[in-house]
Amino acid sequence: MKLHSWISVLLLVYKVTAELEADVFPVDNEVDSIQQEVIQETRKNGTDESSSVPPSSELLSLEDPVQYNFQENLNLTPLPNNFLLASFQFYMQSETFGVNRNEHESNVYSHHTVFPKPVGPIMSQTNTRQLHLRFTHGLWDSQEWGQLPHSGLKSGGNGVELWAVIEGPSKEKAMQSWITLANSLSGLFCASINFIDSSKTTFPVSSFLPTEDDAIPLFNENSSLYLIRAALANEPICTENLTPFVKLLPTRGKSGISSLLDGHKIFDSNWHSLSIDVNTICEDNTGECHYSMEEFVETVVNVPNSLARADRPIPKPLGGDELRCDTNKPHDAFQCFPLPGSREVDFNISKLFGKKICGSSLLGKTSSKICAHVPSNWNVMVQVGDLLFTTDDNCFNVNSNEPHDVHFETSDSGNVLISKETPLHVSRALTGYGQDRGGLRSVFRNPSNQPVELVYFESLPWFMRVYLSSLALESDDSDLTLDSVVKSTFYSPARDRERPTHLERKLVIPPNSTLALSFQFDKSLLKYAEYPPDANHGFEIEAAVATITSPERYEARSSSLLLYLSTPDFSMPYNVIILTSTVMGLAFGTLFNLISKQLLTLEEADRILASTSPKAKLLRLKGKIIGLLKRNNTKPAKIAKSE
User: Fold this and answer.
1) According to the lineage, what is the superkingdom (predicted)?
2) Considering its fold, how many domains does the chain have in total?
3) Rounded Cα distance, 226 and 168, in Å
4) For 560-574, what is each residue's pLDDT tens digit?
């Protein structure tokens, strides 16, 4: 750039600085005109010179801050029996990247804004096109609360559940990428996902399929896409798993809705779920791709219990003046029949989660949003500073940096919005009591007036040897047969210590009916080293998954099971050590005696004992003393003779 161009730029900068010092801020049109003048001045000398100008030389308006593809929402829904569902939802998008670019070139770099930096390299290194991770714990009461949030698509069974779509030239290569993905996620989320191996991995056929809207790209035409899944039913969920979830957010839990995420409050609940979904989206016309990520944290808390713990961190019995006794029954200072909990509730979200919302995230293109789904008898207000605000739809935008709080009050907490009824109730239990064999019984109840079509997925460990020929149907309807319920079956038999049993059945449950499917299995014996430290606790069996395809899309999961196997007496190693030490001591002692001691006859032993006895020693000592005295007496006589 020539000297006169730089002079013009400096003059324009000086002009803007003078206006700022005089507290005269130009309007947007004036700022745009100044930017255009600078751009035109710097581009007068040709395209080559203008291309060398760094982007930072262009003046940006301070009134229009940079906004990113980030969005956060908080949905609050009261449930029956004084429960509250809190759903934290975060959406973010990465920068675009080319499919065929060479990342090893020195002039190629990755630019990160709101999308978490660790996720991108994991997706690219393992050739993962879709990633779904679930951390779930607790019991969702579908009888009282209705359907799961998001039709059950954002929650899993108890423990950890992971499935992904991986691109690879062969199934073996995809399996290697899958193991690498599990190990990487294990370190990222401080979980035991690295225990996932081939013995816990399945390749679903009809379940966990991507939706029609998800167009999964294929970067290499010579490769294929593989859907892989695994679960760990015995994985506990705790605060060390929530912290990495919060760190993935651009706000890091310091501002916005994520500031409410406290592990002690989230996990002190009846049910909670953490989920992450990452999709790869590509544009057909440009060839550019980007990652889209959804991160959900959902919890169900009991409002009276949470408020009581907030007021009394150390549990103490209520005083006599605080007890609400039934006056129709005998009551005195020592006897009281308590009344049911009061239906009048009045609480703030800050009391449930321990703190207020620390303003807006100030990063997204849209404001942080809080919505309360309540009927008309509830009053919902948002508190900003000392002011209270309300809206017609009970949705509030968080725009300022001041602390925000949400206030709920009602005279009848039992009056809540009617939840959508679950299309199908699924439960599963173990049968039998022996240590060599058992059974598995699944119960399906259809409360609707139309048939329900579903895919029932089960992954059973290899030490459960399933007998498909023992499949039986139990129903009150005598006209119902096994062929009319089970339309098709996919079965992949287990291999010892290599892969689990994989079962997928397409079922049709008649309307307003309840039926059960059961089969038998044998229990295998494990090697000594294959038992966990708490072997007597049993082995966790992951939940079964029912993917409902008609009349609506919904996912339901059964509870996990606890299977008891024949467990050896682990005190035996101690007994073996003691017995072995005793035998070794006896053998060594005998051999040592044979080597170090001499064998003698009884007469020789008597002579030796007689010569070594104390009496013999005294006699020898006496003889020596007498001999010495005799020698001393003979010496003077010899001297006298010589004289």
Assistant:
1) Eukaryota
2) 4
3) 8
4) 999 999 888 888 878
